[in-house]
Amino acid sequence: MHKKIYLWLVLFVVFVDEVGVGLVYPMFSSMIFHPSDPLGLSHAPDLIKGVYLGILLAALPIAAFFSGPILGSLSDQKGRRPLYLVSLSLAILGYLLSMYGVWIQSIFILISARCIVGIAAGNAGVVSATIADISTPENKASYFGLYSMAAGLGFMIGPVLGGVFSKNNFLLPFSWAAIASIANLVLIFFLFQETHQVRSSAKVRYTEGLFCLQKAFRLHDLKFLFFTAICFCFGWSFFYEFLPVVWLSDFGFNTDQVGMFYAYGSGFYALSSGLLIRPFQKRFRRHSLVFYSLAILGGVILAILFLPHPFWIWIYLPIVNFLIALTYPTYSAIISDSVDENSQGEILGISQSIQMFSFGISPLLGGTALGLHPHSPMLLGGGFMWIGAAILGLFLKKKIFRKS
Questions:
Q1: What DSSP assignment string belongs to 238-273?
Q2: What global pTM score does this model have?
């Protein structure tokens, strides 16, 4: 019974984190390009404004890239609970600083605040490790599916709240996120008990974020999975961040229509993560699920570019979000099963850090490609999905060869 309570507590951590991430998607563009100039950039050329927008979007995942392995390793040494308390406190500080940056119209303080929120978001590895702590081999994949469902719900609600609140006051979304984080902190403090046996002999390098990629790719078989994850995250990021550009250029959508379809897709992602993928996880091997999901994802994303009518959005968004929901928790379960219980926080933290690294640099790559053609990021998205499938297929072939 206690394990179920802990599960729902950490899922709420994930939900609030993703709401905080999603809040800014409809906001930052408006804040930078808004006629009222809430960040004091009215005299800057559009190119400079675009650079600032890219930095704001990249600040959180890049900061999480550095903090993820550190928080994960510390959770193996100090326990999961202290790291939740620290990371949630940092999130509160980040949102309060965001409010201050908006109040005094400082883009630099807002960027600094996003970095602090990003450091806090590095607790994703701690969440994954907690789920591994309280799972059995039979329910681990489904628990990671609930993780993805909570993330999907948060990312579905976040942009909606950000769009609604920011119509009147850009401070409101950040204040809501701060209040939710405070509630999260209180719940963890009073209800969450430690789920991990502390490994006091563990050593933590505070430069771990700088070297996590190098370390990850020395982990023999895991390096294939990490390469697969990088390609998957690139493909996912290119698809979701630049899909609105395709809608705007091909169909002339407005921001309300874009927001509606974002909510529709994210809602289906949450439904798939929590319910629809379970029969597939029970029936098929995990590696096979990830391989075929990536292969099909690549084909669907590329096919989107040839669909002539917006009606097809109602069809392909559920397909894409179902496949993404099937891939992500299944991959996380594979990584967790590949290491012993004393390394869950460290390895899952590295895994989350690699994903954040990919999400952090993909806007820069996609933005450059966008300058060539509006469809270029989508071509990259589908291509990277296929590259990820090829890498995983090579790993499976190598694994079978070694056994024979």
A1: HHHHHHHHHHHHHH---HHHHHHHHHHHHHHHHHII
A2: 0.72
